[in-house]
Design a protein that fits this description.
Elements (H helix, E strand, L loop, with lengths): L5 H16 L4 H7 L5 H7 L6 E5 L5 H7 L4 E5 L3 H10 L5 E2 L13 E7 L7 H11 E14 L4 H9 L23 E11 L1 H9 L2 H4 L3 H22 L2 E13 L3
Parallel strand pairs: 1-2, 1-4, 2-3, 4-5
Antiparallel strand pairs: 5-7, 6-7
Helix pairs in contact: 2-8, 8-10
C-alpha cells in the first residue's frame, strides 16, 4: 500500500472519524434522510440484475427501495450504530460489517454494487479493485447522492449557514473510481420532498460535520436553521426541499 504524505494522512483520518460519527445519530439519520427516486435506480441497475450489494448501507434507506423491486439484497455497513438501526427496520435482510476497502463477500458474488451517499468516504484506489472483485464479469458499480438543489435560493442560503464542506464538495459531480472499471457515466434526477421545521432540523442534525460539533456550536447552527425555515414558512406557507440525485455508473470488463 502506498505511503501517504502527512497532510493526506491527516485528511484521511478526519474522513474516517466523520464517516463513523453517523453511528452516534443513527436514529436521527433514519428519521431525517430521504430515500432515492425510482428513476435513479432505473438508470443505475443493469438489465437482469438479481443480486445486489448495498455498500455503506447506513440505516437501509436504499436497501428498502431495492427490496421493493424484488431484488435479492445483501447490505454492508461499517458503523455499529447504523447496523443496529438497520436491523430494527429490516430484521430479515443480510447485513454484514465491512467497508468498501474490505468487503466480506466472495468473488463474483453480485450483479451490481450500489453506494448511496458514501463513496466520498472511501479510498478509490483500494475500494475500486475490491468492489470489482465481488462483482460478476461485466457487473456494475452505481454511485448516488441526494444533494439539495443549490439553484433554489432559500436552500442555497440555508447551506451557507452550515459548517463543514458543502454538498457540492462531496465529489458527486465527478466521482473518482479508477481501474479496473471503465469510463464513468453521469445522470441527474430532480425531485422534491415536503418537510416541516422539525424534519428539516433533523436533516441538519444528521450531517456528519454537525454531529461532530460541540454542543454550543451545534445549538447555534440549529437555531439559525430554525429561523431560516420559519421565515420561509411564513413567506410561502409551506416548506419543500428540492433535490438533485446525482448518479454515476461504471462497469467491470465482461
Amino acid at each position: 500500500m502506498r505511503e501517504l504524505p502527512d497532510d493526506e494522512q491527516q485528511r484521511a483520518a478526519r474522513r474516517r472519524v466523520q464517516a463513523r460519527s453517523f453511528g452516534a445519530a443513527a436514529d436521527v439519520y433514519e428519521r431525517a434522510r430521504p430515500s432515492y427516486p425510482a428513476e435513479a435506480l432505473d438508470w443505475l441497475l443493469p438489465p437482469g440484475a438479481r443480486r445486489v450489494l448495498d455498500l455503506g448501507a447506513g440505516t437501509g434507506k436504499l436497501t428498502r427501495a431495492l427490496l421493493a423491486r424484488g431484488l435479492e439484497v445483501v447490505a454492508v455497513e461499517p458503523t455499529a450504530g447504523m447496523r443496529a438501526q438497520f436491523r430494527d427496520v429490516l430484521p430479515g435482510v443480510p447485513l454484514l460489517e465491512g467497508t468498501a476497502e474490505s468487503i466480506p463477500l466472495p468473488d463474483a458474488d453480485v450483479d451490481a454494487v450500489l453506494v448511496a451517499q458514501a463513496w466520498h468516504w472511501v479510498d478509490p484506489a483500494t475500494a475500486a479493485p475490491e468492489v470489482a472483485r465481488v462483482l460478476r464479469p461485466g457487473g456494475r458499480l452505481g454511485l448516488l447522492w441526494n444533494v439539495r438543489d443549490a439553484g433554489v435560493e432559500w436552500l442555497a442560503r440555508l447551506d451557507r449557514l452550515l459548517p463543514g464542506p458543502g454538498e457540492e464538495q462531496l465529489g458527486s459531480l465527478a466521482p473518482r473510481v479508477g481501474p479496473p472499471f471503465g469510463p464513468v457515466e453521469r445522470y441527474d434526477v430532480r425531485w422534491s420532498q415536503p418537510v416541516d421545521v422539525d424534519s428539516l432540523l433533523d436533516l441538519t442534525r444528521s450531517r456528519s460535520w454537525v454531529i461532530a460539533l460541540d454542543e454550543e456550536r451545534r445549538r447555534e447552527v440549529l437555531e439559525d436553521v430554525r429561523a431560516q425555515a420559519q421565515a420561509r414558512l411564513e413567506a410561502v406557507g409551506h416548506l419543500q426541499v428540492d433535490y438533485v440525485t446525482r448518479c454515476s455508473r461504471t462497469t467491470t470488463p465482461a
